[in-house]
Amino acid sequence: MLFNVSGLIQEGIGAVRQYELEDELVTDDREPERVFGNVEFLRTKMGVLVRAHLELVEHETCSRCATPLLETLKIEFEEEFQQVVDAAGRLVEDRPDPDAFIIDDRHMLDITEAVRQYREASAEIAPLCREDCKGLCPVCGNDLNIEACSCEDDVIDVRWAGLASLRTASEGKE
User: Fold this and answer.
1) DSSP symbols for 121-172
2) Helix (H) or strand (E) holding 114
3) 68 and 89 share one domain
């Protein structure tokens, strides 16, 4: 998601460029994810303001039944990418903030890291294949969305067994 903004930087403050984007977000720890939408670049005093309106299709796994699924995330952001060199190639006097997104010394603006960060912030913590997903049986592992199992419903967690025996004893006294 690399853009050459040398022409935009040579124009005055307020100049605008718009692009349709269809690309893939490739990271080390995930499968490539399709990204599409539009981006707008606005020339500012310090660099370029990027306004992105994107959708990202990510491969996920249902947190209840472990079924693979595709999830579409809406990603929208406005970030200023700061120049490290001016239009003539000279180092800018006001160095960019060390945490800022930058336009490199060849006037290339890469929005990949911004898209990755906003994807992480907007991703579901516990994605579901559907809202009423029943999950897996904790005893036999059957997918309860496909078929019910014959396991006992009242299986007691061994950590609570002592309390369960108190409940059983108090019910017997009544």
Assistant:
1) HHS-SS--SSTT---B-TTT--BTTT----S-TTPPPGGGHHHHHHHHHHHH
2) helix 112-122
3) yes
In terms of domains, do 79 and 161 share one? no
Q: Three-class SS of residue 9?
A: helix
Q: Does one domain contain both 118 and 167?
A: no
Distance CA 109, CA 143 (A): 46
- Report residue 25 as tokens: 């977000």
* pLDDT tens track for 23-60: 999 888 888 899 999 999 999 988 999 999 999 999 99
User: Distance between CA atoms of 50 and 110, rounded to whole angstroms?
Assistant: 11
Q: In terms of domains, do 154 and 84 share one?
A: no
Quick: pLDDT tens for 7-33.
Answer: 998 998 999 999 999 999 988 888 889
Selection from 20, 34, 39 nearest residue 109 by Cα: 39
Model confidence band, residue 170 (pLDDT cutoffs 50, 70, 90)? low
Structural domain boundaries enclosing 163: 134-174
Residues 88 and 12 in one domain: yes
